[in-house]
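Worked example (supplementary).
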Amino acid sequence: MKALVAVKRVIDYNVKVRVKADNSGVDLSNTKMSINPFDEIAVEEAVRLKEAGVIDEIIVASIGPKESQEQIRAALALGADRGILVKTDDKPYPLQVAKILKSIAEQESADIVLLGKQAIDDDNNQTGQMLAALMGVGQGTFASEVKVEGDKVNVTREVDGGLQTLALTLPAIITTDLRLNEPRYAKLPNIMKAKKKQLDEKAPSDFGVDMASKQEIVKVVPPAERKAGIKVGSVDELVDKLRNEAKVI
Amino acid sequence: MAILVYAEHDNASLKKATLNTIAAAKQMGDDIHVLVAGSGNQAVADEAAKAEGVTKVLLADNAVYEHQMAENIALLVADIAGGSTDYSHIIAPGTTTGKNFMPRAAALLDVSMLSEITAVIDAQTFDRPIYAGNATATVKTTEDKIVLTVRTTAFDPVAAEGGSASIETIDNVQDSGKSSFVNEEMAKSDRPELTSAGIVVSGGRALANGENFTKYIEPLADKLGAAVGASRAAVDAGYVPNDMQVGQTGKIVAPDLYIAAGISGAIQHLAGMKDSKVIVAINNDPEAPIASVADYFLEADLFDALPELTSKI
Ligand SMILES: Cc1cc2nc3c(=O)[nH]c(=O)nc-3n(C[C@H](O)[C@H](O)[C@H](O)COP(=O)(O)OP(=O)(O)OC[C@H]3O[C@@H](n4cnc5c(N)ncnc54)[C@H](O)[C@@H]3O)c2cc1C
Ligand SMILES: Nc1ncnc2c1ncn2[C@@H]1O[C@H](COP(=O)(O)O)[C@@H](O)[C@H]1O
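After joint prediction of all chains, the assembly is encoded as:
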């Protein structure tokens, strides 16, 4: 079986972004960029499935600027076999990404496609579901457990009320949640080996996907500031403030 | 043109998130239809018909919709509201149900969508938070059908009573055959629902184990009639179940009062609670980032402060 894993290059989760003074977007110059944390979990899951003998080959794909190679290499160092970079300086939205991934998944005959549940930059949480629709296959989103059995996969999902388990016919789409696994760290020899692994470069036009956008960013602004709070010296003072100043208890 | 709102429910009753979503819909137009898809869910349709501003309820009652699986619901929504039908907007609450099927429906309709809008500027233009709420983008969409999910905490709910919409039963059975329900483990609690509670008491890694949640967080929550929340660290460590996680990638809350005990205030946690009206932080580190959003910061050991607070209110 083959797995396709989608990885996005995003701002590192530890960095606090700043909005540009002209309100055209956020300032990403000189910021640390990383593989989207949920995608790291997706790569880890694929590697575990390979180690368990379920999967034979793991392909990683990223759609983005040429620097996205770094994130593909990082996934290769974790154990993926080869990479595909779909190079574009446009900022595709999830429907466009899903259309490109659909072509790749079909060309590669992927049995399982793993994605993150959400990219932590745009916080869309759409791509996996859209890909599943375009491919006409089942989806197991927000996964905290994945079990492949024959031509089916059982996916346990983190939902608002608790946990839900579904059975999907393969091929299927899975999007990862935080509790699915804890990704390993890449070992130095594997980082060296990853440099020699195959990485193909493509363009959106190779897949016939129109990169024109139907969403116009009018402006990007920082969120409203909260007014400065105070330190209270004791539980008594806290109770008094909550009762008589904030009037919330 | 009409607006289709997807109702959040458990086949027995309508979830409040639907009322917040109707409120957002009212800012886009006045012909508001609510789709109630489920199984044995007539009572939910009756409730939806009474909600303020609703002009029509569409009831799809069939076993294939019992668990509101994304595959089937997306087909249903695309069929009802797609193509040349009279719907200009398709809207769902940004719950795990809405997030699951709505992008799938959008892709079936071949339109891009906007997730978790927090304001309606006009019928085509919306605000939404990005980068864990560290920026707000105003986005104008030129799609013919506008597909959205709504961040429910950003819209005050419409009244649950007073409306008298007609209920139309629709005989539209969509079964993808690609997925089937196996089982679920739903948390049972007598406390208010986390996302709509007036007060939330949350604990973090500092609680050290699940028993301490029971011993220190829950008594305070019970006394205040509050919901219980947690940081990711507390959920990952297994102190509490996943449905209690507050944050960028968990639940978004905006209660009148949020009490964070033993939570440092990472960007991802703040994203889920910084729109609360009043924030209290109890932390033994005065430098903890949570101090930057707290209205009242108590520097204390939570194992002393929480019992004292519980006894004094
Ligand atoms: C992709 C991604 C998504 C994430 N999503 C979320 C999310 O949705 N929600 C979320 O919460 N986090 C999320 N996180 C995790 C986040 O970055 C932090 O790691 C997490 O919020 C930390 O939890 P914490 O504050 O409980 O633990 P810590 O950061 O360890 O803080 C513990 C705090 O307790 C204080 N303390 C210790 N002992 C005591 C005591 N006896 N009395 C009082 N105070 C004490 C300490 O001073 C410290 O401030 C995410 C991370 C990633 C990478
Ligand atoms: N440009 C991209 N390149 C590769 N994968 C992506 C890209 N955008 C989104 N994805 C995948 O889709 C998931 C969800 O992203 P989103 O729908 O944008 O929140 C991510 O975690 C990735 O796995």
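Two points are worth noting when inspecting this output. Residues A 13, 37, 120; B 204-206, 231-234, 245-250, 262-264, 266, 268-269, 272, 282-285, 288, 301-303 surround flavin-adenine dinucleotide (ligand 1) (CB under 6 Å). Chain B has a mean pLDDT of 97.
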